[in-house]
Amino acid sequence: MKSFLISLVFISTIFANNLTFYNVSEIEDEENSDKNIKISNMYYDTGELKSKLLYNLNQAFGVKTTFSRKGIIIAEEPFHNNQLDGVRKLYYLSGAIRAEALYTRNNKNGLQTTFYENGIIKSKSFFKNNQLEGIKKRYFPTSELSSVTMYKRGRKNGKEHNYFISGLPQSVIEYKDNNIEGIKEEYYVTGELFSRLTFKNNLQNGLSQIYHKNGIVKEELYYRNGLPLDQNEVLTDESQKDEDENKRYEYFKNGNIKSEYTYKNNILNGLSKKYYPNGTIKEEVIFINGKKNGKKKIYYKNGNLKSTEYYLHNKVNGLVIVYRNNNSYFSKSMYKNNKLHGLKSMYFRTGIIKSTTSYSMGKLNGEKKMFFKDGSLKSTTDYLNGKVDGIITKYYLNGNTESEVFYENDKATGRKNSFDTNGNIIKRTEAKK
User: Fold this and answer.
1) HSE on the CB side for 307, CA within 13 Å?
2) Can you tell me whether residue 430 is helix, strand or coil?
3) What radius of gyration, in Å, describes the C-alpha atoms of the chain?
4) What whole-number distance in Å separates Cα of residue 134 and Cα of residue 124?
5) Phi, psi (degrees; rounded to nearest 5) at 235
6) Cβ contact 303:284 at 8 Å
7) Whose CA is closest to 145, among 171, 165, 159, 174?
8) Which of 41, 211, 244, 331 has fewest C-beta within 10 Å?
9) Cα separation of 273 and 282, whole Å?
10) Please, are residues 147 and 161 in contact by the beta-carbon 8 Å criterion?
């Protein structure tokens, strides 16, 4: 026997955290041999079957199946005691799986997996009481990891890692209660650091740096509440102070200031300076939460700049420049976490490069070049892990090769070639056997 009645049917979508109830005016009930069990069918307005679900004593149970207008299954939802309970599955119109999510008593709890239509996993996430909780991973359509995000009670909390399809990092962002809070780092597609920005409540606050691919700082700005400050404002703006901020001074015997430090809550925060006895500036550096962060400058007694270097969490990172007292370059070096990392260049007083050396985390790695005072190449040496490994080549002033000595693991192999000033070989020594 068939009859029509008013009923509530559960309809939801993959991205909904809670079930939505719709009033349906036409549901066809098919009575089972057990009078307490009914099959309730819902139809589209054009007559095609939209869904079917079993009821027992007016309580939904079993799997509710939802169809497209063409009769393709697009959802399977398990019910128990009138509540969604079990693994809910959604499908593409092609029939491929679209999503799987675990429910208990109408609440999403546990793993949810979404898929691209080709079957590759699109995302994996964990829920607790309908809210994201723990790690969520996203993937590219070619299955490579796209991002990893930490959630707590449905909001981003902790570090989010984003990746290029190559697997190299695209960005690392620190979140607190769904807001960017702390450091945001972005990278070139080739893996080098592009920018390092400081945030508070989703707005840039503090030091922000943009880098060239070789690690040299391209641009450095300070922000407050999302707006850039000029250097004078960074160093002297009194509006940044509060009752917990104070300056502390040390003095020479002649009464001149020896040093001044800015503290906040008894922790070094802000610009600190040191002076020579004659009152000229000797050194200035910025502290954040007790650690050197930002640019440090050192001066000669006459006021000329002696060196500049950049700190990150109390460690030298980036370009270090040392000047002679006449303002010409003495050296340029790249650092990473207090260690030489990259190219170091030394200069003659004339400004011509004296030598270039490649380093990797404090060790000589790569080619070292020495130059004559006129800028022409004097010698090259190959290094590997801090040891001479390869060829030491010396040159005449006219550019022709003078000699070649071969090394392995910091030891001469015995093989050597000598040349005259015209480049002709005059002696060849083979390696000792």
Assistant:
1) 14
2) coil
3) 35
4) 11
5) -85, -25
6) no
7) 165
8) 244
9) 7
10) yes
Q: Is 199 exposed, middle or buried (0-12, 13-18, 19+ CB in 10 A)?
A: buried
- pTM over 0.70? The answer is no
Cβ-in-10-Å burial (0-12, 13-18, 19+) of 374 comes to exposed
pLDDT band of residue 264 (cuts 50, 70, 90) is: confident
Q: For residue 112, give the nearest of 95, 91, 128 by alpha carbon.
A: 128
State how far the Cα of 249 lies from the Cα of 274, in Å rounded to an integer.
10
∠ CA 428-430-433, nearest 5°, is: 165
Two tokens, residue 229: 């400050």
What's the distance, Cα to Cα, between the start and end of the chain in Å?
102
- In single-letter form, the type of residue at position 163 comes to Y
HEC readout, 3-69: EEEEEEEEECCCCCCCCEEEEEEEEEEEECCCCCEEEEEEECCCCCEEEEEEEECCEEEEEEEEECC
Place of tokens 């009464």: 255
Give pLDDT tens digits for 371-391: 999 999 999 999 999 999 999
- Of residues 315 and 219, more confidence is placed in 315
What does the alpha-carbon distance between residue 196 and residue 173 come to, in Å, rounded to a whole number? 10
- The two most distant CA atoms of the chain are separated, in Å, by 112
| Token couple for 281 | 């500036």
